[in-house]
Amino acid sequence: MPGLSLPEPRFETEPFWTGGERGELLIYRCDDCGLWLHPPKPVCRRCLSRSVGPMAVSGLGTVYSHTVNHQPWIPGVAVPYTLAIVELDEEPGLRVSTRLTGAEPADVRIGQRVTVVFEHREDVWLPYFTPVPEEAER
User: Phi/psi of residue 111, each to 5°?
Assistant: First the structure.
């Protein structure tokens, strides 16, 4: 998308923004208690372990909430588009903010199954989500 500011990967966030190169959505996880941590943190919020690092998740989730943006805030970015919070399958409460693609905004619904897709832009792979075909949900 022309005009869209890209994230600047930092130490903890680099895996999230670059895992798409290998088709992986990487989320930090505690090696000691197993808690998933997003956004990434250097210390587990549950057990305070420093043994945390990025792990690949399935890339599957459910639309937890969404909104449709109709305002052309960024030149070159077509509207309308759907912004969503997706709850990943790995753990209740593990959520990512994202853009939904592959569906008309009016067709998006809470509880809808989605899967990650990546858009390569410069040196980052933006994780977006797209609906899982209904026949695959069964």
Answer: 90, -5
> pTM for the full model?
0.92
Rounded CA separation 2/5 (Å): 9
**What secondary structure letter does DSSP report for 135?**
H
**Could you tell me the two tokens for 114?**
């989605």
Distance CA 136, CA 120 (A): 26
Give the tens place of pLDDT for each residue, 112-137. Answer: 999 999 999 999 999 999 999 876 65
Beta bridge partners of 98: 84
Q: Which amino acid appears at position 2 of this protein?
A: P
Residue by residue, what is the 3-state secondary structure of 61-103? EEEEEEEEECCCCCCCCCCCEEEEEEEECCCCCCEEEEEECCC
User: Does 89 have pLDDT greater than 80?
Assistant: yes
Asked if residues 105 and 125 have their Cβ atoms less than 8 Å apart, the reply is: no
| pLDDT tens, residue by residue, 28-75 | 999 999 999 999 999 999 999 999 999 999 999 999 999 999 999 888
Q: Give the H or E element holding residue 16.
A: helix 14-18
User: Within a 13 Å sphere around the CA of 32, how many CA atoms are in the beta-carbon half?
Assistant: 10
